[in-house]
């Protein structure tokens, strides 16, 4: 059920080098990245660990930049989870849509403010 864990960082280049080396120990490599995000996994279908510069522009701290990602197998399920989260009192952090080629996701916070997303790897 868990697809990946995101960790906020204020030292992006240093964190990237740290995780490149650390996760190589278990056979993980970079498989997705941008100028503010890098993800490592043993395969694109396996759970991954990623670093990120927080999107709200604030400094990363324990919790800011941390997100639980729920892997599902269709865009319809992403949409359904997002809608249900809001129905249950969660708050919007970014509606369903493609964020990168093949990456469809929706972002929300739970009742305590914890950030989650639902995502699937899809091409339309």
List SSEs in N-to-C order: EHEEEEHEEE
Gap between N and C termini: 22 Å
Largest sheet, in brief, is: 8 strands, mixed
| Number of strand elements | 8
What gross morphology would you assign? Answer: globular
Count of helical stretches: 2
Quick take:
The chain has about 120 residues and is an alpha+beta fold. It is about 20% helix and about 40% strand. The chain has two domains: about 1-70, Roll (2,3-Dihydroxybiphenyl 1,2-Dioxygenase, domain 1), CATH 3.10.180; about 75-124, 2,3-Dihydroxybiphenyl 1,2-Dioxygenase, domain 1 (Roll).
Give the tags.
2 domains, 8 strands, 8-stranded mixed sheet, globular, 2,3-Dihydroxybiphenyl 1,2-Dioxygenase, domain 1, 2 helices, 124 residues, alpha+beta
């Amino acid at each position: 059920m868990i697809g990946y864990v995101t960790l906020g960082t204020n030292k992006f280049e240093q964190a990237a080098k740290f995780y490149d080396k650390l996760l190589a120990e278990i056979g993980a490599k970079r498989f997705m990245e941008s100028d503010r995000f890098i993800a490592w996994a043993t395969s694109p279908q396996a759970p991954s660990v990623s670093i990120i510069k927080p999107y709200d522009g604030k400094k990363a701290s324990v919790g800011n930049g941390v997100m639980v990602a729920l892997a599902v197998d269709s865009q319809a399920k992403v949409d359904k989870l997002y809608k249900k989260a809001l129905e249950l009192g969660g708050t919007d952090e970014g509606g369903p849509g493609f964020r990168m080629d093949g990456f469809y996701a929706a972002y929300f916070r739970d009742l305590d403010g914890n950030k989650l997303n639902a995502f699937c790897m899809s091409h339309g």
